[in-house]
Specification:
The complex is a heterodimer of chains A (115) and B (114). By secondary structure, chain A is mostly beta strands. Chain A is built from no helices and 13 strands. The chains are: A mainly beta (115), B mainly beta (114). The interface between A and B is medium-sized, with 21 and 20 residues.
């Protein structure tokens, strides 16, 4: 079984400040982890994914995430927030179950960026 | 390159009716997945098709079904609609056989059941 917990349904930052969105996962087998962004009235867009290579993963738009097995975490960060980063962010985990990979998503974190 | 397209974008139905949603993947993509997004349950995986075969299925009742055609286009059907089926239905396509390939999402079909 696998699950994802995103701490904080809303995160508010000032433009130029550090963005930190938290994600903790639970998986009985080595997981693959993803961060997606969703803008209003749009589908999801992949920001980055961890597939057991480097633990620090760099994604698009200046985002990165670090896989920490000991903490079962995969937090998303960006050094300097931009107004255009305001959106809903989803963390997802996918682990093999009988050879199948079915993703499980967190409940999402809404990022609010103040000018 | 055109993205994933979903039709219709908005749909209103009444309880007990059935509905068919359509998804056209990115050209060359052979895998299509469907997801349901609701405020209450969040994002949930429905099913995945690859080369006209259902490869994975989420935990949804049999009222939810899908299929994929030889040109990779996919449809999902919901029969005997319930109020709780009101949701944004998202389709995503990816290139190939690996379920971990990057998925590209369409804008979704917003279904309202009255």
């Amino acid at each position: 079984a696998q699950s994802v917990t995103q701490l904080g349904s809303h995160v508010s930052v000032s433009e130029g400040a550090l963005v930190l969105l938290r994600c903790n996962y639970s998986s009985s087998v080595p997981p693959y982890l993803f961060w997606y962004v969703q803008y209003p009235n749009q589908g999801l867009q992949l920001l980055l994914k961890y597939t057991s290579a480097a633990t620090l993963v760099k994604g698009i738009n200046g985002f990165e995430a670090e896989f920490k097995k000991s903490e079962t975490s995969f937090h998303l960060t960006k050094p300097s927030a931009h107004m255009s980063d305001a959106a809903e962010y989803f963390c997802a985990v996918s682990a093999s179950s009988g050879g199948s990979y079915i993703p499980t998503f967190g409940r999402g974190t809404s990022l609010i960026v103040h000018p | 390159k055109a993205g994933v397209t979903q039709t219709p974008r908005y749909l209103i139905k009444t309880r007990g009716q059935q509905v068919t949603l359509s998804c056209s993947p990115i050209s060359g993509h052979r895998s299509v997945s469907w997801y349901q997004q609701t405020p209450g349950q969040g994002l949930q995986f429905l099913f995945e098709y690859f080369s006209e075969t259902q490869r994975n299925k989420g935990n949804f009742p049999g009222r939810f079904s899908g299929r994929q055609f030889s040109n990779s286009r996919s449809e999902m059907n919901v029969s005997t609609l319930e109020l709780g089926d009101s949701a944004l239905y998202l389709c995503a396509s990816s290139k190939g056989q690996n379920s971990l390939d990057t998925q590209y999402f369409g804008p979704g079909t917003r279904l309202t059941v009255l």
